[in-house]
């Protein structure tokens, strides 16, 4: 097991748990972009679809399942459980302006032209821009809670690491 991957996964997992606990304890999703959360759910779903076809290790399987489940749990809390606290009026970023270019890029620039590879590449491209609706929301409201800011800083760091991973894979 690569220690850096373990530390990265644990850091990412901690950030997700903190966000879920923050929403649950405050019973509010104010200040959090639902559109960014939808994009992250798409990222993990498209990246980890190989969960259905490939077994690497118990750790790998569990982490993939946890990331997918946590992203959909966040969406559930925002759009169903605490729907009244979700700021529809300010979370207006048009995510199709991110989805379409990322998909086109994944079709054009990938390591291997297979469905799984294109989905994985798409997820890397999308993860690198999935934070934009959150930044757009913060710029419109001018508010960012400390805990939310820390969570999204960690997400940005994960996205940068993903782009570096893609770059390394493309040059091999």
TrEMBL record:
Keywords: Endoplasmic reticulum, ER-Golgi transport, Membrane, Protein transport, Receptor, Transmembrane, Transmembrane helix, Transport. One of its GO terms (molecular function) is ER retention sequence binding. It is found in: Endoplasmic reticulum membrane. It comes from the Eukaryota. PROSITE patterns: ER_LUMEN_RECEPTOR_1 (PS00951), ER_LUMEN_RECEPTOR_2 (PS00952). The chain crosses the membrane at residues 62-80, 92-109. It is a multi-pass membrane protein. GO terms for cellular component: endoplasmic reticulum membrane. Pfam families: ER_lumen_recept (PF00810). InterPro entries: ER_ret_rcpt. The keyword Transmembrane helix applies. One of its GO terms (biological process) is protein transport. Belongs to the ERD2 family. This is ER lumen protein-retaining receptor. It comes from Operophtera brumata (Winter moth). The lineage of its organism: Eukaryota, Metazoa, Ecdysozoa, Arthropoda, Hexapoda.
